[in-house]
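Incident log, support desk, overnight shift.

02:14 A customer reports that sequence design results differ from what the structure should imply. Their input is reproduced verbatim below. On-call engineer (initials T.W.) acknowledged and began investigating.
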């Protein structure tokens, strides 16, 4: 009897365990199938939007286009206020809301970044005026950055072709998360410094001993001290335009990654690599000339004034080669990740020690040269939809002014330039989430589709 009861209990327990395990396996497989279906439907939903042809809107702008205009206005105003180009925000809007293909979205984005950056630069030059306009944009840093920045972008694009998608996505997520953390810490450090300065100023006013002279009083007697520096630096801008033209001609000759250029050059042929490698001596020659000219100018100023001015002091705080190296790394990462340089330029300038307002204005000044080069190249290579792209560029042009005015009034009212740093931090965090998310979707689609996931040759 005891043996029969034991056998009965054993059979019952084994039956219960088998049913439970089957139920668990069914549940787990159901969950995994739901996750698999979700991951498969997201790319399908994304591809459904990509099939929309922007030229098919013959009866006027649709709901998606108007929504894309509104979101682009908001993104451009926030990006301009933070001194960031905004390409990482424009691409998802154009891709998912406006229904443009990724190729068209990239071309439209170059128009939008150019429009926003041009508006911000014009606002800094025309509306701030005089010494303040010259102080906002640091032309010395722009000169030292620009040649190596453009060289780095070219090398980064080659690396983008060679590196697998999963590695680019992982590197982008890690690097941008690190930059977001560092920029956020810099923002809190500046915030605490501003709080101490505000407290010291309040105590000084209570003792009727003003800590700083008003800006008008400081400029009143010192209007002649700046000399030519208070005006527009035509010579520096002429050198920047010369750098822009040299690299632009080389990029037009090279063409895109499909071999489409102004002249017929075999992709990855001898002429292709000769033109590509010629960017290195161009960048080195321009950088060496700029460093020599700035050092000569600094010596002359020191001899005339008897002391180094603020510009010279700032340039002497770090070795001259730090700026070109930082520019090269920034450009290489920008080309590797396929994003605009503004998202990386501003944090780099902040980490070097450039004041937030100067970093924002100088970053957008350099972004204007990079984005305009891409825009003109798209036009010369026969881009379609230039009219619609110009509409987006006009929206970003207006939004950039709005963002610049709002952030300037907020800084003037609060007395805290750290607002720019926190705004940059927010844009970087949002860009990290957006680009990493869609990058992960692309990697998953390649993995499930059995695509090759290793390194590739540049040709």
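02:41 Re-run completed on a clean worker. Output:
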């Amino acid at each position: 009897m005891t043996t029969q009861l034991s056998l009965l209990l054993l059979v019952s327990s084994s039956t219960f365990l088998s049913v439970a395990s089957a139920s668990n396996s069914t549940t787990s497989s159901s969950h995994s199938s739901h996750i698999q279906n979700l991951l498969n439907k997201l790319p399908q939903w994304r591809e459904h939007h990509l099939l929309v042809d922007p030229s098919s809107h013959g009866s006027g702008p649709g709901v998606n286009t108007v929504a894309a205009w509104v979101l682009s206005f908001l993104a451009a105003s926030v990006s301009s206020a933070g001194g960031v180009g905004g390409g990482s925000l424009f691409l998802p809007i154009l891709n998912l809301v406006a229904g443009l293909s990724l190729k068209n979205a990239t071309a439209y984005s170059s128009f939008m970044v150019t429009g926003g950056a041009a508006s911000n630069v014009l606002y800094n030059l025309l509306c701030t005026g005089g010494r303040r306009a010259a102080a906002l944009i640091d032309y010395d840093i722009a000169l030292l950055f620009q040649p190596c920045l453009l060289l780095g972008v070219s090398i980064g694009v080659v690396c983008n072709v060679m590196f697998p998608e999963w590695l680019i996505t992982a590197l982008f997520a890690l690097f941008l998360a690190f930059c977001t953390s560092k920029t956020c810490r810099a923002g809190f450090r500046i915030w605490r410094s501003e709080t101490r300065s505000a407290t010291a100023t309040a105590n000084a006013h209570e003792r009727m001993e003003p800590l700083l002279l008003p800006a008008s009083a400081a400029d009143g007697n010192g209007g002649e001290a700046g000399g030519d520096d208070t005006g527009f630096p035509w010579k520096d801008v002429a050198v920047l335009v010369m750098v822009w033209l040299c690299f632009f001609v080389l990029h037009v000759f090279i063409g895109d990654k499909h071999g489409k250029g102004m002249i017929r050059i075999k992709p990855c042929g001898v002429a292709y690599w000769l033109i590509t490698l010629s960017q290195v001596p161009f960048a080195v020659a321009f950088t060496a000339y700029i460093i020599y000219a700035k050092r000569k100018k600094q010596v002359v100023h020191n001899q005339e004034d008897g002391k180094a001015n603020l510009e010279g002091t700032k340039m002497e705080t770090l070795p001259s080669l730090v700026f070109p190296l930082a520019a090269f790394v920034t450009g290489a990462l920008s080309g590797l990740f396929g994003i605009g340089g503004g998202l990386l330029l501003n944090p780099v300038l902040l980490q070097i020690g450039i004041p937030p307002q100067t970093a924002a204005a100088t970053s957008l000044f350099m972004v204007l040269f990079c984005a305009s080069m891409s825009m003109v190249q798209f036009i010369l290579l026969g881009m379609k939809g230039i009219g619609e792209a110009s509409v987006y560029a006009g929206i970003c042009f207006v939004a950039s002014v709005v963002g610049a005015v709002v952030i300037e009034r907020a800084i003037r009212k609060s007395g805290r330039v750290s607002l720019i740093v926190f705004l940059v931090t927010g844009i970087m965090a949002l860009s990290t989430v957006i680009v990493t998310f869609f990058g992960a979707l692309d990697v998953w689609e390649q993995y499930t589709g059995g695509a090759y996931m290793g390194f590739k040759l540049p040709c």
